[in-house]
Structure formats: C-alpha cells, structure tokens
Write a structure and sequence with these properties.
Blueprint lengths: L4 H12 L5 H7 L4 H13 L19 E9 L4 H12 L4 E6 L6 E7 L2 H10 L7 E8 L16
Antiparallel strand pairs: 1-3, 1-4, 2-3
Amino acid sequence: MELTSQDIKILALLQHNADLSSSDVAHELNMSQSPAWRRIKRLEEANIITKKVAVLNRKALGMELVAFTTINLSAAGRKNMELFEHAVSQLDEVVECYTMTGAWDYMLKVVVKSIGHYEQFVRNRLLEVPMIGEVHSHISVTEIKNTSELPLRQL
C-alpha cells in the first residue's frame, strides 16, 4: 500500500495516542471527519494498523526486572524450531521473542517481578521447553528508552 503524507501523520497520531477518535484525528490534521475515518479504516484493512492497546506501566505493577535471554537449541532443524516457538509463545513472561543471526538461535525479552521470580521462571518454566541447549541471561540495569512507536520519519 502506498502511504500518503496524511496517512503517515495519522499513523503518528494514533501510535502516540490510540484513544483518538477519527474526529480528533481530523481536527489535528485540519481535515473533515469522514475522510479521516476512511483513511483510518483503509490503514486497518491493509493491516498497517493491526490493533489498539493500552500500554501498561510495568513498574507501577511491580514488574521490576527485564531480562534479555539468549537461547541456543540443542539440535537444529525446522521441527525443533517449531516446537520451541510454539512452547515459548505460551509463556506469559516472554513479551518478545526473535530468531537471531550470529551466536544465538533466539533472544527473548522476559518481564518479571524480581530476580527471584526470574530464577523460578527459568528453572520451572523455560527449561521445560523442548530442545533448549543453552540459556544465557542478560539482566537490564537501567531502562534508557522503551517505546512502541515506530520511526515513521523513514517513510
């Protein structure tokens, strides 16, 4: 889908505040409500806007620890990857999971209340996942930047 400058402005507004109505978006962009609504619907239908969520404050909820966990599978192969990916997708503590190039097969972002909770997660849940060969933990000390907003200036 070819994005116009208006589309990009709409995306910027909505990724900053998904609560904005099409009327609010129209007002911000100096356009009428109907075209704004149609553009938003088109962006949703094109799967550019996939969902609208509330971003929660993990620290206010007592989730103090963020760990980046690198994993190597014990054996390569598509079946092993599928088993691992299915199993890890069921772990609530894993908020992001990526396949990687280089030394590691996967990197997970894990959010838990404390180092004790992380240890229990690794021992009792993560290591139950099939095909894990190696697990390395990298504990975040200070969060410098954390955003879900994409860099739309590139478009």
